[in-house]
Amino acid sequence: MKTYSFIILFLYCICNVSMANEDSMVQSEDSLSNVLAKTTDPAKRIEILQELCALTTNTPATLKWIQQTRLEARKNNSRENEDWALGHLAVYFYNFEMLDSLIYYTSQSDSLSKVMGKHSSYYYGSQALLCQNLLWIGQREKASDTAIRLFKQAKEENSTNGIINLGETLGLINQQIGQDSIAVTYLKESLDMLIETSGKVPYIIRVLNSIIDSELKLKRFDDARKHIEELQAHLDKMKKNIPNSGMSQLYSSNYLLSEAFYINLFVQLGNADEAKKHLLMAQSYENDINDGYVEHFYKLSLAAYYKLTKQYAQALNIINQAMELNDSPETMKLKAEILFDKGDSREAAIQYRDALEQNESQNVETFIRQISELRAIHDTNQLELEVKELRVKELELEAKQQQLKWSIALTSLFLIILILGTFVFIHTRRLNNELKKDKRALLKSEKELRIARDHAEESDRLKSLFLSNMSHEIRTPLNAIVGFAQLLDIETEEGDERKEFTKVIMDNSALLLNLVNDILDISRLESERYRFSFAEENLAECCRAALTSAEHRVKPGVELRFSPESEDFILNTDKLRLQQVLINLVGNATKFTKQGFIELAFTVDKKNDLVRFTVTDTGCGIPADKQDAIFERFEKLNEYVQGTGLGLSICRIIAERFGGDVILDKKYTGGARFIFTHSLNISQEKDI
């Protein structure tokens, strides 16, 4: 979701120009140029140049004035104004997709920051733009690693602008990889700080747009509606103070987007009347669209509305226009749904297939890129190890050569004494023999180490290739089975025996997909190359999120409980991996609990420096003879019931990385109770 107009607007907003009077900004470019030619005072010249930059925003002349501002600042050793110019150059080249120039001026900003001894808001702004540019060209992992590092740096330095810029960037990155819930967390933090500090309306509008986009995908309709109302309120403020036609067009484009958000919201709620009302309001702004994302989202919303109102011809026409802008899997899926509702099941199936293939292709590319990065890290570590080993051998050889030199010196000293000389000669000869023997042993050891290294590299390559092939070859047919099974399920009437068969296919496909994911998870965890990213998290919120993810598995008549010791306790942890353990433990409880309750609770044991989680159920329990075996992989308690698979093994591995463990409480007889412990003292970030 690249929104050039928003970045252009940001450039306009951060221009902190000291104006001689309120009318100076509305002077013509020629007028200001004439004033500049007659001005000799350096500070006044920089002020006029900055006014010219603001006046010519997003035009070719902008670049000339920004570069001239930088030259003037460097000539007068004004580092703050040079920093201002570098930040605006980064924005300019970002807007025009000139990555090489963006990288160059970002590096210049970094060098200037080191000279200044601080990281300014322009430094963090240009770094955030670089991360976003990497995101748009597909380098998600590099963008994410850089943004996370800079975000932590901004927090350590307590840089408000840095936290805002990098928080928004991390929100956009998580949106791109489908982690909208995490994206909303980062974006809301940026929004709160914006409102609390600068209160820049255009920037607030930009962040609100991103938040609403994710909330609609997450189906958080109440939050989305509240934020759309807040967005339109800020747009009304913006309308009252529009300095030029470019800003007026930008206002219209954003207002159209807000109405598109409303259309999308009410379509998802099934309220065609409300959706139509906002559609009519949006139509008056259609000619003012100046942003690819706005146009694409608006057309998606229109197509969804026409689908809801069964105007299939119009829906297909609009969705085809949207696909010309962006043929993403989301767009292709909506077209498939329109075709299916229209009755064209064959074409719908083709669209579903194309969407699945495109999504799988993107996933495979990402996976291969990650494998390549891991391989590069492995090769680097292996090379460092070899260098260290060779250095040790060189030191040993140097030591023995020094010993030989001393022996020769002693021989020369006592050469006049034949007996002593003979003894020295024999001793020296023996040392030479030992050195040769040691050298041969070292050469043999080096050869064996080289062979072992080659074998290890080949094994690692074959394992990586196997995991990549298994992921692709199993997921592709499995996704196809799930997709066509869903189509069969929709077209089959209730009571038809085929509907039960279809449900069996879908359930077992889901189990197989989970098994594939678990195998990949446990393989990567055991390889000890998994990166755990630790951060301060509200423990109660993490637990509730885990319960929400597992509640659909709870059988009717079973109560799902949560008993936290504290609602405000903050734990330094990897949120995603912590929730994975809790979801696995609660999910196991749902399999064997048909009535009663399932309870998740936690207590903080500061004496032993740990947090103790308990997952208690009133299910069938675990037989005494099986209690020591349940953490074995694919262990089955009952031959006629699905076994525990890899879930508990993965939980135990993750718990060990958290400095804790997962055990079964054998004293509890009302069902089953698992105890999971997590250390309170753990480093901020740990590579695993």
Automatic annotation (TrEMBL):
Leader peptide range in chain numbering: 1-20
Protein known as: histidine kinase
Substrates-to-products reaction catalysed: ATP + protein L-histidine = ADP + protein N-phospho-L-histidine
Pfam families: HATPase_c (PF02518), HisKA (PF00512)
Keyword Signal: yes
Coiled-coil zones: 378-448
Lineage: Bacteria, Pseudomonadati, Bacteroidota, Bacteroidia, Bacteroidales
Enzyme Commission numbers on file: 2.7.13.3
InterPro entries, per the entry: HATPase_C_sf, HATPase_dom, His_kinase_dom, HisK_dim/P_dom, HisK_dim/P_sf, Sensor_HK_Regulatory, Sig_transdc_His_kin-like_C, TPR-like_helical_dom_sf
Domain Histidine kinase: start-end pairs: 469-682
Keyword set includes Transmembrane: yes
Ranges that cross the membrane: 406-426
Keywords per UniProt: Coiled coil, Kinase, Membrane, Phosphoprotein, Signal, Transferase, Transmembrane, Transmembrane helix, Two-component regulatory system
